[in-house]
What does this fold into?
Amino acid sequence: MKYTLKKTTLLLSLLLPVFACSADYLTFDSVIEFQSGRYGDNKTSIISGTELNTGNNISLELINNSDHYSGTVQAICSPIVLTMMEKPGRYYLRAYFTYNSYYGKNAIDSCILGLISPPA
It folds into this structure.
């Protein structure tokens, strides 16, 4: 029994970081609004738009802090968001983020621009 408990404890301790550090994502069909910058104490950026395949309006609030390992929202997502806004319906945006417990907000990991294939 003691040996099994040690193995179980070891297994759980090894798996915990995998579950705690998983990245989430949102996929936008179109972007309606993009707020970015540092406004005094408000260091957040917001991407608002329509979710891909559902049509739901969604918003993603992100900490805009260069101290985060992945960099700022402007550096990572601005060119992609501008491309989406210039050609609505042609591309989708997938934003990967992780929760930053220090700031209590999501931090951007990456933004992906994908081509929406035309219906066959």
Q: What stands out?
A: The beta strands are 24-35, 44-51, 57-63, 91-100, 105-115. The first helix runs from residue 2 to 20. Residues 91 and 116 are 5 Å apart (CA to CA). The two ends are 60 Å apart (CA to CA).
